[in-house]
Amino acid sequence: MLKLSGESLMGDQSYGISPERLSQYAADVKAAVNAGVEVAIVIGGGNIFRGMSGVAQGFDRVQGDYMGMLATLINSMSLQGELEKQGLKTELLSGLAIEPICKAMSRRRAKEAMAEGRVVIIGGGSGNPFFTTDTASALRAVEIEADAILKGTRVDGIYTADPEKDPTATKYGELTFQEALSKRLKVMDLTAFALCEENNLPIYVFDMNKPGNLLKVVSGEAVGTEVHG
User: Fold this and answer.
1) CA torsion 221→148→154→75, rounded to 10°?
2) How far separated are the first and last CA of the chain, in Å rounded?
3) Number of structural domains the chain divides into
4) The pTM is what?
5) Whether the Cβ atoms of residue 171 and residue 159 lie closer than 8 Å to each other
């Protein structure tokens, strides 16, 4: 299960979707698929609309969260289009069924599509307000019996502090779930983190913005930080 943030799609822009970044991500997913890996993807919507930001601006929380779910579908559709442009077969599913764009997410539908060699993109979050796309990715990963969650970020792993703010921050090679909790490291939100720990689902945090890193991760190279039981 590949988890991408919506903000990552902005590239060097301050809003929206960067065609260059979209193309790079699709090429990296294609390389992983060509290596024989079954891939499912959950992507956030923060480059378009984030529910909690909407609340701060006066939106109703439930309404804002549904707006954020629709933003994830816009990102999912853009990634689907680029993947198919690069020759991959895809299946777009969603916690919110919106015909004719996508079908409702179901475990059986997702697993069948992956078995057929399709990249499964799951938009619409969990389909419920009050849950993040981190939690949605953990939920979907457990549903489809994924081997791991690969969290693609703009940093190359988990550090003792924010490496963009603290030059003395050092990188962890691996951590247990309990170590990450005790050190108060923000790997994923607590609901997602608890779901991963309960189901012994490892989380691998790596730099998705460096071309070729996804293939290195699925090939077993140590280019990020692994959180495990």
Assistant:
1) 130
2) 18
3) 1
4) 0.94
5) yes
Strands 40-43 and 149-153: unpaired
**Which pLDDT tens digit goes with each residue over 104-144?**
999 999 999 999 999 999 999 999 999 999 999 999 999 99
Q: Token pair of 125, please?
A: 């979050």
> CB–CB of 47/75 below 8 Å?
yes
User: Which pLDDT tens digit goes with each residue over 31-48?
Assistant: 999 999 999 999 999 999
In three state form, how does the secondary structure of the chain look? CEEECCHHHHCCCCCCCCHHHHHHHHHHHHHHHHCCCCCEEEECCCCCCCHHHHHHCCCCHHHHHHHHHHHHHHHHHHHHHHHHHCCCCEEEEECCCCCCCCEECCHHHHHHHHHCCCEEEEECCCCCCCCCHHHHHHHHHHHCCCCCEEEEECCCCCECCCCCCCCCCCECCEEEHHHHHHCCCCCCCHHHHHHHHHCCCCEEEEECCCCCHHHHHHCCCCCCEEEEC
Residue at token pair 């390389």: 31
Distance from C-alpha of 14 to C-alpha of 75, rounded to nearest angstrom? 15
C-alpha closest to that of 225 among 163, 176, 192, 181: 176
CATH number for 170: 3.40.1160.10
Question: What is the Cα–Cα distance from 114 to 39, expressed in whole angstroms?
Answer: 7
Amino acid at 106: S
112: containing domain: 2-228
Place of tokens 């816009």: 74
Query: How far is it, in rounded angstroms, from Cα 151 to Cα 134?
Result: 9
